[in-house]
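Hey,
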Amino acid sequence: SLLMLPHVITNTITSGPMAEETWKIRDLLTDHKRTCMSIVTLPEEMPVNEAKDLYDLYEDPLQMAKGPMFINRVWPEVEPMKGEFMNQDWQPQGTLSSGAHAALSAIRFRSERRKNQDLYLKRVRDEFELPIVELPFVFAQEFDLDALDEISASLDLALDRIDNATGAAVA
């Protein structure tokens, strides 16, 4: 709605200082050389649905250029596990230490979490005709400079790949 505001105002008010300023804003937003819109989402059902709604507005009525799509908080891929222990119903024949139980539970959780995200990552790749940048989930107690460095490094690599693939600079 906020991005539609300049279009609504310029269609309603035709003269005066407000109309002049609004035309400048509308011109900036619709100038594909100076402005593009990037969608940021999570690999989850509701955020991907909302991203799709926004994606459908790019050209009409917004008339905005498409920037890369950012998918935030992507869990790392899990190496495929072999064996029955990945089955939630499997129980060890002997007793496991509490640490081994915790590790098994964590591995199962991580695997299931990534499988769930993979459904939405696939949907994004199938439904959005945009360069896609996956940003990692940062496993940290607090979001500090190290976490920011991790995100920045991932962002740099992904944007370089897009730049090299398209031959165009990504801002």
